[in-house]
Amino acid sequence: MVKALTERKVLLTDCADAQGLIAGITGVCFKHKLNIIKNSEFVDNFQGRFFMRTELEGVFNDDILMEDLQQVLPANNHMSLISARRKRIVILVTKEAHCLGDLLMKNFYGALNVDIAAVVGNYDNLQELTEKFDIPFHHVSHEGLDRHQHEQALLEVIDSYQADYLVLAKFMRILTPEFVERYPNRIINIHHSFLPAFIGANPYRQAWERGVKIIGATAHFVNNCLDEGPIIKQDVIHVDHSYSALEMAKAGRDVEKSVLSRALALVINDQVVVHGNKTIVF
Amino acid sequence: MVKALTERKVLLTDCADAQGLIAGITGVCFKHKLNIIKNSEFVDNFQGRFFMRTELEGVFNDDILMEDLQQVLPANNHMSLISARRKRIVILVTKEAHCLGDLLMKNFYGALNVDIAAVVGNYDNLQELTEKFDIPFHHVSHEGLDRHQHEQALLEVIDSYQADYLVLAKFMRILTPEFVERYPNRIINIHHSFLPAFIGANPYRQAWERGVKIIGATAHFVNNCLDEGPIIKQDVIHVDHSYSALEMAKAGRDVEKSVLSRALALVINDQVVVHGNKTIVF
Amino acid sequence: MVKALTERKVLLTDCADAQGLIAGITGVCFKHKLNIIKNSEFVDNFQGRFFMRTELEGVFNDDILMEDLQQVLPANNHMSLISARRKRIVILVTKEAHCLGDLLMKNFYGALNVDIAAVVGNYDNLQELTEKFDIPFHHVSHEGLDRHQHEQALLEVIDSYQADYLVLAKFMRILTPEFVERYPNRIINIHHSFLPAFIGANPYRQAWERGVKIIGATAHFVNNCLDEGPIIKQDVIHVDHSYSALEMAKAGRDVEKSVLSRALALVINDQVVVHGNKTIVF
Amino acid sequence: MVKALTERKVLLTDCADAQGLIAGITGVCFKHKLNIIKNSEFVDNFQGRFFMRTELEGVFNDDILMEDLQQVLPANNHMSLISARRKRIVILVTKEAHCLGDLLMKNFYGALNVDIAAVVGNYDNLQELTEKFDIPFHHVSHEGLDRHQHEQALLEVIDSYQADYLVLAKFMRILTPEFVERYPNRIINIHHSFLPAFIGANPYRQAWERGVKIIGATAHFVNNCLDEGPIIKQDVIHVDHSYSALEMAKAGRDVEKSVLSRALALVINDQVVVHGNKTIVF
């Protein structure tokens, strides 16, 4: 006789707010003999919307569980039951090594619970670094191609890896809506400023010119507007008058890589729910 | 006919961990038609202990609610149902004004949801400041009294105010176990160091001598051991070689008052559960 | 015979960069038997500009000292020799108490080395608080007056106090260029956002709508453009999805008052040099 | 005719305080036609000691410069004139990869201005990682050796590299005074706690047991007492009740590597002066 397998899954609930939701959902889980490892909820009172993340352990019968849950939830709910498996990512880069290097290194010593399926660059200078870690690197140059052609070439490579998420680790090309729609809320970008300050190009130069005393970085999902998607994580460091624009950029790199890897850790751990142009981070 | 009053209460649960606790508790709340405003739980896997804070709104029948909850909980549970009313505090001081001043001022403009019933000092130099805010000040000098006599004198004043919490806002006298037992987990102290570094007297001097690059402050409940109770909140600031011990103390005052008032806000909002020598801060 | 008085003064130098400036200036100070307590310099290599702050102690003969310094400096230099005396400020407020309250309280217990000459409000609700501290409050309502008339009424009160600096402690009126020119680089404002993000009205609402994970405050000198003067100090706090716009504003108040009082401390200690639209903070 | 070479050097002065020191030293530099790029000074008023760091550019005649400087300095001064060349380090490790990995990666993409001459480990599990970056790895096991023998074996390898600094990147062996004396103020250690809290073994376990709300890391020079040398850099992160000791350790690793690499950057840039058991960080 086969012993049923104990698994861990995350149940994400997103529905209209109503009385009894927590009792209803956790009651169903209890009926299914699932142990709740961790439960977090948030009600957006402004929009009357209920969100819950429930980390479950036990023997899952997914179909019956989802059916039972539908009985206790309002209509038009979004539920997802996500296996706590390692996620697959493809990393896109241009020339800068610090974010890619940090992800490769953290992954190497087991601090990022992710499979890096491949790295794709529109330049080839990060190939050597990537291959040190036995990860395939694809050089997909944009030269001689229009934006559409370049994205087609990228997608041919990327799609083949069936990644859960694309990570733009200082990928300095603007993606078209067509590209973004292929990976809805599945593209994570690191922007080298504390958004919404200094949107667009050369934010450290802008920051230096404005004489700010703090610089930052923002990790966000990419949607169709430049620098406009739901923010996952932000952090800052203090600077002073003695920093040149170049030194701000150098200091900023440490924040960028730290914010990107922490944002990625939240996402792959199924702690981030997108809600309109915002995120709920459980 | 009288319309039943809608109230807000916080239900704190502390019991042995078991399956179905969230479902059970929230199910009872639902049955009582209580709306869950906010629910947070924590399981201490190391000790197999379950903690939950449930913010409820509705018409309460306390006795029946507690009875019903007992049906779904393991034996030896601790439950408390706390009305979301303003707490009363008595503040104890010695000579330094910054923590007291901050509490008085924040309370004046409505940023601390608390009633300051009285201020008690073993010196009288903070009387003028206290009375600016129309709060009674009691000068209970320790001079000529032994520790026991002084504490008796203090308790005579303090007990009369029936405070929920005593706040030691730089009260520089060590309390005896007898005193502390009168207010178990109800005395909040601000210690002028990042505990457990620099326990005891003159921590800024110690910090300066050690050449640390960071100094901090710790708000904690007082138990019978000096500087040893459950920590509620800590924070730090960066310093450098140019700070004298005096300048460290001056810079530290800002952290002290900020940590104390944030810790107090958590406590009076019923967000802090004491668990052995630690706190769970929901 | 009269013994000459030992004083402390700060010498601020701002001139074209050249070789030998530190040697030249400190050599003159040495010749004058002035002891250098602290010396800080900064060269803006981008603009070829030299800045130095020299804290001096001794018996000053100001005229001869300045003459001697001119011998070692390039033409078109700006030098100022500032007595280390307590500065006088006038605080302007509208309705919010937290920044004013913090300044009043810190000043009361000696943590701000400043004379608060008066508080001026376009509402009268902060009169009671101000007068607790025996500081004159002037209610100069804007009602029924056009902007020019209101500013005239304000200036009549303010000018009479001969303040070194005006501190806008949540003064919610936009000042005209004519007003600002009366106090060049002498008006300090606290802006309730991390500039340049969320310029203009209702920044916490904007921050909430954008779903940011960090909010901040900016203290800056006021020049002719709204929210555009040289930044003195900035700080931030982390927030999350659970904050409403109102809760962000509440949390932001603590940063606002902290940033304003730290910026003011730098300014009155003659540590801040304005250089174009930026500051050098020694 | 040979054109003299323009170089950059750092002049570090450490002497009894006296009037005219800045003027004297910078006057000599001016006489030598050396341009001062950056000048920072600090007076320890408690001990009457003067420290200055002067970054110079020009054509150096070291012997005459040092002779001339002796003319303007009190007796018993310590002066060093350090060429702004890349420093050589040897990294010692045990089993943990995060600090080593961070140094290797940052160095690879040019964010650490240092030559990593070799990595020495008492286990061999970090050999593969080190060699990815074409840096020699030496496995010097402690097994079967007493402390003295092991240190001899280490020194044989280390000494051959003529390193400026040894970096203990989670090297979990206690060094003897004999070893430490070979590299006075030249061994940099990362301690996995906010010293002086949690001295000794298993600090994260200690931190968890104490229920602290902040954990940290400390980079310091190693002297003869365990965890006792001059502190170079410290930083912290906030934790809460939900962290197990293991999760604290995991979160702490990010602080450890960040603190170590920032401390190393300060040291190799000749910004750190050791003064008794403290550092002055210019």
From TrEMBL, chains A, B, C, D:
Q: What EC number(s) would the UniProt record show?
A: 3.5.1.10
**Where are the active-site residues found?**
227
UniProt GO BP: 'de novo' IMP biosynthetic process; one-carbon metabolic process
Q: Which Gene3D superfamilies match?
A: 3.30.70.260, Formyl transferase, N-terminal domain
ACT domain location is 10-88
The broad enzyme category this protein falls into is hydrolase
What is the catalytic activity of this protein? (6R)-10-formyltetrahydrofolate + H2O = (6S)-5,6,7,8-tetrahydrofolate + formate + H(+)
State the Pfam families in the record: Formyl_trans_N
Pathway(s) served: Purine metabolism; IMP biosynthesis via de novo pathway; formate from 10-formyl-5,6,7,8-tetrahydrofolate: step 1/1
NCBIfam families in alphabetical order = PRK06027.1 (NF004684), PurU (TIGR00655)
Do you know which HAMAP family this protein is assigned to? Answer: PurU
Q: What is the annotated role of this protein in its UniProt record?
A: Catalyzes the hydrolysis of 10-formyltetrahydrofolate (formyl-FH4) to formate and tetrahydrofolate (FH4).
Q: Which family does it belong to?
A: Belongs to the PurU family.
Q: What is this protein called?
A: Formyltetrahydrofolate deformylase
> Organism, per UniProt?
Shewanella cyperi
